[in-house]
């Protein structure tokens, strides 16, 4: 999508660009909506024919794990040392859920807190979309596309707080021209989970206006998050590093955590299995090759970026395709 400035100029070019955006959104909405309807129909057919077990029963996650991500975070908030348990979220997560869970109680007792959380964040998403797209029809199509997309439905099914992170990153772009406010939202999102930090590539050219406030604010959010926990902050930081190390070794793979990725890595694993590898050897070999390939791609991309041959959004897109990894447990379910 282009900048949210589109629509402020009443020129013919701007009007034609708005029409083009609406047409693209309309086609995307038709394709995604058709895919959703087809998925519902297929799984309903499985259930009708008495295939009531996973994965035939639903295109979402295991029913036993519904809202489990949300309840896990609320449980971590109620204990004095959350990183003694399984959690990968950074310290800025805990002030949000400390307040939320103290008001509404632990979500394991009722589903109302989960519904309330997602209603609030879905409403916030609509506000952001409406500010980004000044044309109301365009905003509605973009918002509906968001609502029927598989990631949004899966996030709700698991009760995952990724919707909050997405909103915070989106807000950083909506208020891009207000440097400190934009840095505030981006630092807040990176204080919950490190991945949004990649968008510093986009804001990096405004070092004093965006990067320095981002670095300052993420330290503030981290320290504030640690302050609501009991005990020595260094113990909590060591616990966070330990949990990430466990994730990389047990779920992330055997080499730097690059395992079972949604990118071209999976194709290499299938190829190795076809040619006769067995046991864990395909993962090890594919991890090694994948690591070399992405380092090679990164080297080329950075040279192109610094010489102005590609833009920062293009760089972020390719990095997301190359580096995004899916936890092994999700692959096992598939």
Describe this structure in words.
The radius of gyration is 22 Å and the shape is globular. Mean pLDDT is 75; it is low at 1-17, 253-261 and 327-334. The chain has helices spanning 12-48, 68-78, 93-104, 112-132, 136-147, 150-158, 162-174, 179-192, 200-203, 207-227, 233-250, 265-274, 281-306, 312-323, 328-333. Helices cover 68% and strands 0% of the residues. The chain is mainly α and 334 residues long.
Question: How are the SSEs ordered, and which strands pair?
Answer:
Elements: H1 12-48, H2 68-78, H3 93-104, H4 112-132, H5 136-147, H6 150-158, H7 162-174, H8 179-192, H9 200-203, H10 207-227, H11 233-250, H12 265-274, H13 281-306, H14 312-323, H15 328-333
Helix pairs in contact: 1-5, 2-3, 4-5, 4-7, 7-8, 8-10, 12-13, 13-14
Overall number of strands? 0
N- to C-terminal separation? 32 Å
**Structural class by sheet pairing and helices:** mainly alpha
Specify Rg, calculated over alpha carbons. 22 Å
Report helical residue fraction: 55-70%
Main beta-sheet annotation: none
Low-confidence stretches: 1-17, 253-261, 327-334
Beta-strand residue percentage: under 5%
- Count of helix runs: 15
Which descriptor suits the 3D outline? globular
Gist of the model:
This protein has 334 residues and is mainly alpha-helical.
Features:
mainly alpha; globular; 334 residues; disordered C terminus; 15 helices; 68% helix
């Amino acid at each position: 999508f282009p900048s949210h400035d589109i629509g402020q100029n009443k020129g013919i070019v701007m009007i034609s660009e708005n029409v083009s955006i609406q047409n693209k959104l309309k086609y995307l909405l038709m394709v995604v909506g058709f895919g959703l309807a087809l998925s519902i129909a297929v799984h309903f057919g499985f259930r009708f024919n008495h295939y009531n077990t996973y994965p035939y029963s639903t295109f979402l996650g295991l029913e036993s794990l519904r809202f489990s991500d949300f309840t896990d975070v609320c449980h971590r908030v109620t204990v004095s040392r959350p990183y003694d348990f399984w959690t990968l979220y950074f310290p800025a997560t805990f002030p949000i859920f400390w307040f939320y869970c103290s008001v509404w109680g632990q979500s394991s007792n009722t589903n109302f807190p989960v519904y309330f959380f997602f209603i609030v964040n879905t409403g916030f998403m609509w506000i952001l979309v409406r500010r980004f797209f000044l044309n109301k029809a365009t905003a509605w199509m973009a918002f509906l596309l968001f609502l029927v997309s598989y990631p949004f439905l899966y996030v709700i099914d698991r009760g995952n707080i990724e919707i909050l992170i997405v909103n915070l990153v989106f807000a950083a772009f909506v208020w891009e021209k207000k440097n400190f406010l934009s840095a505030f939202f981006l630092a807040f999102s990176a204080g919950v989970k490190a991945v949004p930090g990649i968008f510093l590539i986009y804001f990096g050219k405004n070092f004093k206006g965006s990067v320095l406030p981002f670095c300052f604010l993420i330290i503030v959010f981290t320290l504030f998050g640690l302050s609501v926990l009991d005990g020595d902050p260094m113990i909590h930081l060591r616990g966070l590093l330990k949990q990430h190390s466990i994730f990389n070794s047990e779920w992330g793979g055997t080499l730097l955590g690059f395992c079972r990725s949604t990118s071209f890595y999976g194709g290499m694993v299938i190829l190795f299995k076809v040619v006769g590898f067995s046991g864990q050897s395909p993962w090890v070999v594919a991890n090694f090759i994948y690591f070399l390939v992405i380092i090679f791609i990164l080297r080329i991309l950075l040279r192109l970026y610094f010489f102005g041959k590609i833009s920062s959004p293009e760089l972020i897109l390719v990095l997301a395709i190359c580096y995004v990894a899916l936890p092994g447990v999700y692959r096992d379910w598939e």
